[in-house]
Design brief:
The chain has three helices and ten strands; from the N terminus they run βββαβββββββαα. It is of the alpha+beta class. It has a domain of about 100 residues.
Length: about 190
């Protein structure tokens, strides 16, 4: 199952990406299709929205068997170490930029009851968070007749990044004033 995470809430969604979206200034974009009306999707996805893709993945949790000298299984150890730090509800914690905070603690094992070894691998479903914090430009929202909406979220183009850098550049007048202030302070 695939979800989008917006404001620490998961919404089932389909996501399709384009490296060069020819319909949108050749910017890299992602189209997010989810259940909801225009107003709901519009409220969730505004310019600057921090969001991520969350995928449920099957993780191998085949236990390690602890045995006595005769080979009898005493108990099993199952690695339950989380990939990311979570809150008390098991939700992945995000930093200020909307990225998951990697788990930095000691490995965690649960001791289980002895179980017969069947040779089969055991798996658990884990949600893995993929930040998309660079896709913050909101594009078109398309309303579908089946009750779904698709919103496009895109990255800044190289031209837009350069324009923003130039807009924040120091002007000749500011540079001259700073130089004069520095000289006069001597």
């Amino acid at each position: 199952m695939i979800y989008v995470n917006v404001n620490n809430t998961l919404y089932p969604a389909e996501i399709h990406g384009q490296v060069h979206d020819r319909e949108w200034d050749n910017r890299e974009s992602k189209a997010i299709t989810m259940s909801g009306d225009y107003a709901t999707v519009d409220a969730l996805f505004q310019n600057g929205t921090k969001w991520s893709i969350v995928m449920e993945e099957n993780i191998d949790v085949t236990p390690v068997y602890q045995t006595d000298e005769e080979g009898n299984i005493l108990y099993t150890q199952i690695d339950v170490t989380p990939q990311y730090n979570t809150d008390e509800n098991g939700e992945v914690l995000l930093d200020d930029e909307g990225n998951p905070i990697p788990y930095d603690g000691e490995p965690i094992y649960e001791n289980g009851d002895p179980i017969p070894y069947t040779g089969e691998r055991l798996y658990k479903t884990e949600r893995v968070n993929y930040p998309n914090s660079e896709f913050t430009i909101r594009g078109d929202i398309t309303v579908h007749t089946n009750g779904n909406c698709t919103v496009k979220m895109g990255k800044l183009t190289a031209t837009e990044i350069l324009q923003a850098q130039l807009a924040n550049a120091v002007t000749e007048e500011e540079l001259a004033a700073a130089y004069e202030e520095g000289v006069n302070s001597l």
